[in-house]
Protein backbone atom coordinates (compact mmCIF):
# COMPACT_ATOMS: atom_id res chain seq x y z
CA UNK A 1 0.00 0.00 0.00
CA UNK A 2 2.69 2.51 1.01
CA UNK A 3 4.74 1.71 -2.07
CA UNK A 4 1.72 2.25 -4.31
CA UNK A 5 0.92 5.57 -2.61
CA UNK A 6 4.52 6.69 -2.93
CA UNK A 7 4.57 5.94 -6.65
CA UNK A 8 1.22 7.70 -7.10
CA UNK A 9 2.35 10.85 -5.26
CA UNK A 10 5.73 10.91 -6.98
CA UNK A 11 4.14 10.55 -10.41
CA UNK A 12 1.65 13.33 -9.67
CA UNK A 13 4.07 15.99 -8.38
CA UNK A 14 7.46 14.85 -9.63
CA UNK A 15 8.03 17.90 -11.85
CA UNK A 16 7.26 20.28 -8.99
CA UNK A 17 9.65 18.32 -6.78
CA UNK A 18 12.38 18.19 -9.40
CA UNK A 19 12.00 21.93 -10.05
CA UNK A 20 12.28 22.91 -6.39
CA UNK A 21 15.07 20.38 -5.86
CA UNK A 22 17.01 22.19 -8.59
CA UNK A 23 16.22 25.53 -6.90
CA UNK A 24 17.44 24.13 -3.57
CA UNK A 25 20.70 22.92 -5.09
CA UNK A 26 21.19 26.29 -6.76
CA UNK A 27 20.50 28.08 -3.45
CA UNK A 28 23.02 26.01 -1.55
CA UNK A 29 25.64 26.37 -4.27
CA UNK A 30 25.09 30.14 -4.52
CA UNK A 31 25.56 30.59 -0.78
CA UNK A 32 28.77 28.58 -0.94
CA UNK A 33 30.07 30.62 -3.86
CA UNK A 34 29.05 33.91 -2.20
CA UNK A 35 30.99 33.05 0.96
CA UNK A 36 34.07 32.11 -1.03
CA UNK A 37 33.73 35.30 -3.08
CA UNK A 38 33.56 37.42 0.08
CA UNK A 39 36.69 35.72 1.38
CA UNK A 40 38.49 36.48 -1.89
CA UNK A 41 37.44 40.14 -1.67
CA UNK A 42 38.11 40.92 1.99
CA UNK A 43 39.99 37.96 3.43
CA UNK A 44 38.74 35.30 5.83
CA UNK A 45 39.58 37.33 8.95
CA UNK A 46 37.53 40.35 7.88
CA UNK A 47 34.59 38.16 6.86
CA UNK A 48 34.65 36.39 10.21
CA UNK A 49 34.71 39.78 11.94
CA UNK A 50 31.62 41.16 10.20
CA UNK A 51 29.78 37.87 10.64
CA UNK A 52 30.50 37.88 14.37
CA UNK A 53 30.19 41.54 15.28
CA UNK A 54 28.38 43.44 12.50
CA UNK A 55 25.34 41.14 12.09
CA UNK A 56 26.17 40.53 8.43
CA UNK A 57 23.72 37.92 7.15
CA UNK A 58 24.75 36.38 3.80
CA UNK A 59 21.91 33.84 4.07
CA UNK A 60 19.01 36.32 4.00
CA UNK A 61 18.19 35.89 0.32
CA UNK A 62 17.45 32.18 0.98
CA UNK A 63 14.79 33.03 3.54
CA UNK A 64 11.60 32.43 1.57
CA UNK A 65 12.76 29.57 -0.69
CA UNK A 66 11.65 26.85 1.81
CA UNK A 67 8.35 28.67 2.38
CA UNK A 68 7.51 28.75 -1.33
CA UNK A 69 8.61 25.13 -1.68
CA UNK A 70 6.33 23.94 1.13
CA UNK A 71 3.29 25.83 -0.19
CA UNK A 72 3.86 24.71 -3.78
CA UNK A 73 4.25 21.04 -2.88
CA UNK A 74 1.06 21.07 -0.77
CA UNK A 75 -0.94 22.74 -3.55
CA UNK A 76 0.38 20.37 -6.21
CA UNK A 77 -0.24 17.32 -4.04
CA UNK A 78 -3.76 18.04 -2.79
CA UNK A 79 -5.58 20.51 -5.06
CA UNK A 80 -6.09 17.92 -7.86
CA UNK A 81 -7.31 15.39 -5.29
CA UNK A 82 -9.85 17.83 -3.84
CA UNK A 83 -11.06 19.49 -7.04
CA UNK A 84 -11.56 16.20 -8.86
CA UNK A 85 -12.84 14.43 -5.73
CA UNK A 86 -10.28 11.68 -6.29
CA UNK A 87 -9.33 11.57 -2.63
CA UNK A 88 -12.88 10.47 -1.74
CA UNK A 89 -12.23 7.30 -3.70
CA UNK A 90 -9.20 6.62 -1.51
CA UNK A 91 -11.38 6.80 1.57
CA UNK A 92 -13.17 3.65 0.35
CA UNK A 93 -9.99 1.62 0.60
CA UNK A 94 -9.76 -0.83 3.53
CA UNK A 95 -7.56 1.57 5.51
CA UNK A 96 -8.43 4.01 8.28
CA UNK A 97 -9.22 7.39 6.68
CA UNK A 98 -7.06 9.44 9.04
CA UNK A 99 -4.23 6.95 8.64
CA UNK A 100 -4.45 7.36 4.88
CA UNK A 101 -4.29 11.14 5.13
CA UNK A 102 -1.34 11.02 7.50
CA UNK A 103 0.50 8.69 5.14
CA UNK A 104 -0.03 11.16 2.30
CA UNK A 105 1.24 14.10 4.33
CA UNK A 106 4.13 12.01 5.63
CA UNK A 107 5.20 11.42 2.03
CA UNK A 108 4.99 15.15 1.39
CA UNK A 109 7.19 15.72 4.43
CA UNK A 110 9.71 13.17 3.17
CA UNK A 111 9.86 14.89 -0.20
CA UNK A 112 10.42 18.27 1.50
CA UNK A 113 13.06 16.90 3.87
CA UNK A 114 14.97 15.46 0.93
CA UNK A 115 14.95 18.85 -0.79
CA UNK A 116 15.82 20.83 2.34
CA UNK A 117 18.55 18.50 3.59
CA UNK A 118 20.19 18.54 0.17
CA UNK A 119 20.25 22.32 0.28
CA UNK A 120 21.66 22.37 3.81
CA UNK A 121 24.34 19.82 3.02
CA UNK A 122 25.60 21.77 0.03
CA UNK A 123 25.47 25.13 1.82
CA UNK A 124 26.74 24.28 5.29
CA UNK A 125 29.11 21.42 4.58
CA UNK A 126 30.66 23.46 1.80
CA UNK A 127 31.50 26.40 4.06
CA UNK A 128 32.97 24.25 6.85
CA UNK A 129 36.27 24.49 5.01
CA UNK A 130 36.40 28.30 5.24
CA UNK A 131 34.45 29.24 8.39
CA UNK A 132 35.01 28.24 12.05
CA UNK A 133 32.58 25.95 13.85
CA UNK A 134 30.92 28.79 15.77
CA UNK A 135 29.96 30.55 12.53
CA UNK A 136 28.75 27.29 11.00
CA UNK A 137 26.50 26.75 14.03
CA UNK A 138 25.24 30.33 13.82
CA UNK A 139 24.48 29.79 10.13
CA UNK A 140 22.49 26.64 10.91
CA UNK A 141 20.53 28.38 13.69
CA UNK A 142 19.79 31.26 11.30
CA UNK A 143 18.43 29.12 8.46
CA UNK A 144 16.80 26.33 10.51
CA UNK A 145 13.61 28.36 11.28
CA UNK A 146 13.12 29.00 7.57
CA UNK A 147 13.16 25.28 6.80
CA UNK A 148 10.86 24.53 9.72
CA UNK A 149 8.63 27.31 8.40
CA UNK A 150 8.56 25.62 5.00
CA UNK A 151 7.37 22.34 6.52
CA UNK A 152 4.82 24.18 8.67
CA UNK A 153 3.58 26.02 5.58
CA UNK A 154 3.12 22.65 3.86
CA UNK A 155 1.00 21.35 6.76
CA UNK A 156 -1.14 24.49 7.04
CA UNK A 157 -1.61 24.81 3.28
CA UNK A 158 -2.86 21.21 3.22
CA UNK A 159 -5.34 22.12 5.95
CA UNK A 160 -6.56 25.13 3.95
CA UNK A 161 -6.94 23.16 0.69
CA UNK A 162 -9.39 20.74 2.33
CA UNK A 163 -11.63 23.54 3.63
CA UNK A 164 -14.53 24.15 1.21
CA UNK A 165 -16.18 27.20 2.84
CA UNK A 166 -14.66 30.48 1.54
CA UNK A 167 -15.16 32.37 4.83
CA UNK A 168 -13.62 29.59 6.90
CA UNK A 169 -10.82 29.23 4.37
CA UNK A 170 -10.03 32.95 4.67
CA UNK A 171 -9.97 32.63 8.47
CA UNK A 172 -7.61 29.67 8.23
CA UNK A 173 -5.33 31.61 5.86
CA UNK A 174 -5.10 34.46 8.38
CA UNK A 175 -4.37 32.08 11.27
CA UNK A 176 -1.82 30.16 9.20
CA UNK A 177 -0.10 33.38 8.17
CA UNK A 178 0.23 34.39 11.82
CA UNK A 179 1.79 31.04 12.72
CA UNK A 180 4.17 31.05 9.77
CA UNK A 181 5.31 34.60 10.54
CA UNK A 182 6.84 33.26 13.77
CA UNK A 183 9.48 31.53 11.65
CA UNK A 184 10.38 34.66 9.68
CA UNK A 185 10.94 37.39 12.24
CA UNK A 186 13.79 39.79 11.51
CA UNK A 187 16.65 38.78 13.78
CA UNK A 188 20.42 38.89 13.98
CA UNK A 189 22.46 35.86 12.96
CA UNK A 190 21.95 33.00 15.42
CA UNK A 191 19.32 34.90 17.43
CA UNK A 192 16.71 32.13 17.03
CA UNK A 193 18.69 29.73 19.22
CA UNK A 194 16.32 29.88 22.28
CA UNK A 195 13.22 29.60 20.09
CA UNK A 196 14.24 26.62 17.95
CA UNK A 197 12.80 23.90 20.27
CA UNK A 198 9.43 25.69 20.42
CA UNK A 199 9.37 26.18 16.65
CA UNK A 200 10.16 22.49 16.16
CA UNK A 201 7.24 21.55 18.44
CA UNK A 202 4.89 23.87 16.52
CA UNK A 203 5.99 22.26 13.26
CA UNK A 204 5.29 18.77 14.60
CA UNK A 205 1.86 19.76 15.95
CA UNK A 206 0.78 21.31 12.65
CA UNK A 207 1.24 17.89 11.05
CA UNK A 208 -2.24 17.01 12.38
CA UNK A 209 -4.09 20.24 11.52
CA UNK A 210 -5.48 18.98 8.22
CA UNK A 211 -7.37 16.10 9.85
CA UNK A 212 -10.26 18.38 10.92
CA UNK A 213 -10.78 20.11 7.56
CA UNK A 214 -10.34 16.80 5.74
CA UNK A 215 -13.05 15.31 7.96
CA UNK A 216 -15.38 18.18 6.99
CA UNK A 217 -14.50 17.64 3.33
CA UNK A 218 -15.18 13.91 3.21
CA UNK A 219 -18.42 14.30 5.20
CA UNK A 220 -19.60 17.11 2.91
CA UNK A 221 -20.00 19.65 5.73
CA UNK A 222 -20.54 23.13 4.26
CA UNK A 223 -21.31 25.25 7.29
UniProtKB/TrEMBL annotation:
Membrane-crossing residue ranges in chain numbering: 12-33, 61-79, 100-129, 135-154, 166-184, 196-215
Keywords, sorted A to Z: Membrane, Transmembrane, Transmembrane helix
Signal sequence bounds: none
Name listed for the protein in its UniProt record: ABC transporter permease
Originating species: Prolixibacter bellariivorans
Amino acid sequence: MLKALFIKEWTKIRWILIGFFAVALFSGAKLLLDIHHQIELMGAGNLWDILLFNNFNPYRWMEYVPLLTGIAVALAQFIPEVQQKRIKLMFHLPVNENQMLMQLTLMGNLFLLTIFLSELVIALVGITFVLPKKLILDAFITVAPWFLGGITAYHLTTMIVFESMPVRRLSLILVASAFISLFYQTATTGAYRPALPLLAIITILTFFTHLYTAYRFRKGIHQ
